[in-house]
Specification:
The chain contains 3 helices and 5 strands. It is of the alpha+beta class and 133 residues long. It starts with a strand and ends in a 5-residue tail after the last helix.
């Protein structure tokens, strides 16, 4: 199941050429991931407070395919690829009117307060598990 998050390109997102500055795509997909987690009913503040764990990006493999421009209406899609004890793998894309502009394969890890890998809580793993048909 794909999660979608709409956003608009603001002037502050663009460079001198009037296109989205490359690093801002990482911000866009971060917002998409945050909203995906929220859509699963996961409160990241409570996760840190109650379990002492946070999500951190371990790896991003990104492809910049087409430029987005000022005032474009975009959609960030987030799709779960895999989830294991302490790791979540996602495919994300930034799309404009059906045209894929940017793709990313993102690996997240779960970290404790000391910065060491930590297992995802069982209830969180269950929310990430694909539905059985």
């Amino acid at each position: 199941m794909s999660h979608t998050f709409p956003l608009r390109v603001y002037y502050e997102d663009t460079d001198l050429a009037g296109i989205v500055y490359y690093a801002n795509y990482l911000k866009f997909i971060e917002r998409g991931r945050s909203e995906w987690v929220r859509s699963l009913g996961i409160d990241q503040g409570a996760l840190k407070r109650d379990h002492g764990i946070v999500f951190a990006v371990r790896r991003v493999e990104a492809d910049y395919l087409r430029p987005a421009r000022f005032d474009d209406e975009l959609t960030v899609t987030t799709d779960l690829v895999a989830a294991s004890g302490a790791r979540i793998v996602l495919d994300q894309a930034v799309v404009r009117a059906g045209e894929v502009l940017f793709t990313a394969h993102v690996t997240l890890v779960c970290l404790n307060d000391a910065g060491a890998a930590a297992r995802l809580p069982a209830d969180l793993r269950q929310r990430l598990a694909p539905p059985l048909h």
